[in-house]
Amino acid sequence: MRFALVNPKWTFEGSTYFGCAEPHFPLELLSAREMLRSAGQDVLLIDAWMDGLSVDDVRARLEVFDEDFLVMPTAPSYLFWRCPQPELRVPRHWIDQLGRRSEKVIIGPHGSVTPRTTLQKTGGTIVLRGEPDQTIPLLATMPKEMIAGCSWTDENGVFHSSPGLGVTDMKALGPLDYSDYPVEKHVHLHHIFQGNGADHLSRGAEIEFARGCPYACTFCNKTLFRNKYRERDLTNVLAEIDALISRGVDYIYFIDEIFGVGRQVRALLEAIATRPVSIGFQTRIDLWDESSLELLERARCVSFECGIESITDIGRDAMNKNCRVTTDRITELLAYARKRIPWVQANLIKTAADNPLDVSRWQDYLKSKGVWVSEPVPMFPFPGSPEYVSTFGEQPDERAWERAHSFYLNLFSDKGFSDLQAPTPATLGELECVCS
Questions:
Q1: Span 86-113, pLDDT tens digits
Q2: Which residue, 11, 119, 297, 358, is most buried by CB atoms nearer than 10 A?
Q3: Quick one: pLDDT at residue 436?
Q4: Any idea where the domains of the chain sit in the sequence?
Q5: Is the CB of residue 192 less than 8 Å from the CB of residue 204?
Q6: For residues 215 and 162, is the Cβ–Cβ distance under 8 A?
């Protein structure tokens, strides 16, 4: 069977999307390609975003390849599955304009929560819920009803959905093959900001060391995909790093939901310290102490982003953070980290448990130590997250994305949006060109 894996050219005009709008490695497609190759399938990966390809360019390549399955994600890179753009405008447009007669397989966070609506909106014929790395190859050899997390509509228009979710064995994921991928075009350095001590860097890359998170914070959108914590084999990760370094990469951003949890983290950092590369990632400050922060300095960590969420025990407990240290210790560790890492970021979420004056004092103190501290902001209640259920009092249905998006627009209508978002976002119906 022939599988075409296509990353479309993403655009976010009018969107509430607050992720990075630069091209990133489509790690979900690269890892699926390795699994397909191992299964003996023919596979073509096309990254229209990184290569700057038009729909016509991609269609021409597909006509030569003549695929049986066309696979397309609904969010740009695994890095942003947990905070995707709510709208399905881009995959809808690309599937429509490509006009392929092959099976159109949709992967990503939208279909994992609302598979029926995702099929209807995108024009797909199959949705794979959860992690698709190892379920995509099964489409060539197994009936759809036997594939965990597979949803589809039959020739009579009847919707079917097999139980479960796709969950990948991360030990089975070897080093990703970049030999025929345009690594040199990836000039973006994720979470590197002007003047944070990384001005010498020239080429970035993203890598996945571990997937999932052992915590269950209420606001986190990971439950229906990338949930259980699993590490990759360290040898494979280091081989992938070395291959990227050989292509000129000197900065790596780990896309892990929570970097710093696993047993191999110290060994990984010690190995990175011997290589000509710097790193960045997202983490929790209570996973680190003075000794491990000094190891990060040796491993040339230049970007250290921490989810603090609340400055009070009550606030963190309300979000089920399961934080192991006090606010005073959090403050102490952030200041200590900033002495060794050029960019240290502390993120806050708006909560009734935190007095605004206390928050302001805490921000001012850490800023005086060189730590960048966010303003507390309400979170988008992503369908599939505990936050969605607590906000609306029900599990997501097929109108969940519209409900969450409308709620978010109303929440910010008189406050203004982030500078990463459109100043006046459109409704979901307007973005998707369907009736809302």
A1: 999 999 999 999 999 999 999 999 999 9
A2: 119
A3: 36
A4: 2-161, 176-373
A5: yes
A6: no
Q: Report the candidate in 55, 165, 164, 34 with the shortest Cα–Cα distance to residue 108.
A: 165
pLDDT given at position 418: 63
Which helix or strand (DSSP H or E) is residue 242 part of? Answer: helix 234-246
CA–CA separation, 250 vs 229, rounded Å? 27
2-161 and 176-373, same CATH topology: no
Please say whether the structural domain 176-373 has been given the CATH code 3.80.30.20.
yes
pLDDT tens digit sequence for 44-65: 999 999 999 999 999 999 999 9
Instruction: Write the burial class of residue 352 (CB in 10 Å: 0-12 exposed, 13-18 middle, 19+ buried).
Output: exposed
CA distance 329 to 286: 9
The rounded distance, in Å, linking the Cα atoms of 96 and 128 is 19
Return the CATH number of the domain spanning residue range 2-161: 3.40.50.280
Nearest to 264 by CA among 288, 233, 296, 240: 233
Q: What is the DSSP string of 331-379?
A: HHHHHHHHTT-SEEEEEEB--TTS-HHHHHHHHHHHHHTT-EEPPPBPP
Nearest CA to 87 among 128, 130, 48, 122? 122
340: its two tokens: 């060794």
From the number of C-beta atoms within 10 Å of its C-beta (0-12, 13-18, 19+), residue 319 rates as buried
Note whether 207 and 252 are within 8 A (CB).
Answer: yes
Distance set, CA 396 to CA 173, 247, 399, 426 (Å): 31, 44, 8, 22
Query: In the block, which residue shows the tokens 């929570």?
Result: 258
Where does residue 353 rank: exposed (0-12), middle (13-18), buried (19+ CB within 10 A)?
Answer: middle
Measured CA angle at 233 (ends 229, 235), to 5 deg:
150
Phi-psi region of 207 (alpha: psi -120 to 50; beta: other; left: phi over 0): beta
Contacts of 244 (CB under 8 A, 6+ apart): 178, 183, 205, 207, 252
